[in-house]
Amino acid sequence: MPQPNLDQLQQVCSQVRRDIVRMVHAQQSGHPGGSLGCADYLVALYFHVMSFNNSFKMDGKGEDMFFLSNGHISPVWYSVLARSGFFEVSELATFRKIGTRLQGHPATEEGLPGVRIASGSLGQGLSAAIGAALAKRIDGDDKIVHCLMGDGEQQEGQVWEAAMFAAHNKVDRLIATIDFNGQQIDGATSDVNDLGDLGAKYSSFGWDVLTCDGNYLTELISTMDDAQAKCGNGKPILILMKTEMGKGVDFMEGTHKWHGIPPNDQQLAEALNQLEETLGDY
Amino acid sequence: MTKLTYTDKKDTRSGFGDGLLELGRTNPDVVALCADLIGSLKMGAFQKEFPERFFQTGIAEANMISIAAGLATAGKIPFTGTFANFSTSRVYDQLRQGIAYSDKNVKVCASHAGLTLGEDGATHQVLEDLGMTKMLPNFTVINPCDYHQTKAATMAIADHNGPVYLRFGRPSWPMFMEDQPFEIGKAINLIEGSDVSIFATGHLVWKAIEAEAELAKEGISAEVVNIHTIKPLDEEAILKSVAKTGCAVSAEEHQMAGGLGESIASTLVRNKLYPMEFVAVNDQFGESGKPDQLLDKYGLGVVDIVNAAKEAISRK
User: Is A176 on the interface with B (CB under 8 A)?
Assistant: First the structure.
């Protein structure tokens, strides 16, 4: 694996977090909590882990592919796509506005580069990622398919249909990651519908399970590198990635309350004070 | 136009299975998925000849539909196979978000539709699937009438880029569409007539042909049009026929709400008011029984089409 440039990645993370709170504030709509928590993961994925062309092709032949299953964290994905060259950074200003490509939840209808399938209704992304991985197997394409899911999303039954299928069919160039922040809209996952030991569950389904701190870049990257090295060994791979919802903005951290509400003007100013502008605001 | 007859019967699902096998041999991008109903869907020959392009998902239809969306994303042409109720009502959100809204080139192939499924009863006799799928933007909806047309439709949809719902059934049924070209969205005028237009789809096309013979005995000239494509609807053919006959009957193995008849009525009223009658299931669930017993009991038999035609004519 190439050595990551941690300083550069940290700078991108800080800018992406600024983008997230600014986007959600501008339209007074969107999901900042989970987006902030997954900033490190998506930056590591697009700026270090995956190999891809940013002249976007839907079929992704010969490229690593990513499927976002928990589509409500669209702000972080849009920011990372723009910051890695899929479209102009200035387009982030159109988030959730009428007549634009940056829909509230990711969609393909307007042709936004980087997005391959609509997501938002939960539980479907892992299955889609499996489909892409099967297509690569048929084509003899050894590139890897990545998928990010939410932890609350694990309450959807389809996730377990997909987990069972992937192990049975040895879909082993697939890395699924769970954003394990312990929160969902109505409260802590442990209160709403306890997920139990997710790692043990996936292990018992026949997956190779890795765990890491998803807000600690060094550990995150080393785990993602490990996961890639394990590909092709007959098992699908799961990264159980512990994150903090709202990470990087102190008053949003560790609570479900910022799942889907925007900051007001004063809260935006407080948030931006905590996040260094590194690459220039859009 | 010559009168239509048949010498043999076969199930429409075998038309699907045979068409899929031919596609496997001619189009390397075609892949197939099945949710534990390989025998029922007649997908065994494809599975045997192309094991690397066939995926058994087990009893997990939602997963199957979303895997198909992923395969299509990566450039394949997936054909999913299960019963019609598991192809629609069970997976509606997967169809809507991952295939319709995302405009994926997935062919949702659905067997055992309607009352003619027979003895398994109402749990499996989906009568709402055409409505559910025709409401989804980007979807093309096709309901062929016999073995030959189902085979031809199966092969034709591989060349159409976009989501397709292909509906067929279980019972052995008259075969009469041999050597007919299949063009998506192009209705086929089977019998010309001047007093009433009967627009039928699926298994009820044969019933409409039988009804035409009965009407002819009473001196009534019925036109029979095979509407194999529910969406996009061949509005031009429908309007042309009704302009000539002055009234319409729709015939389908489906609920009246959301069915072919409503699509036709919508087309007609946006042009001119014509009398129209609906042969369809009227807000009921089916039950166990033999296919023809069920069609008769739920008002989808030959006599029902005949009576509907007379009623439409009387209201001209």
Answer: no
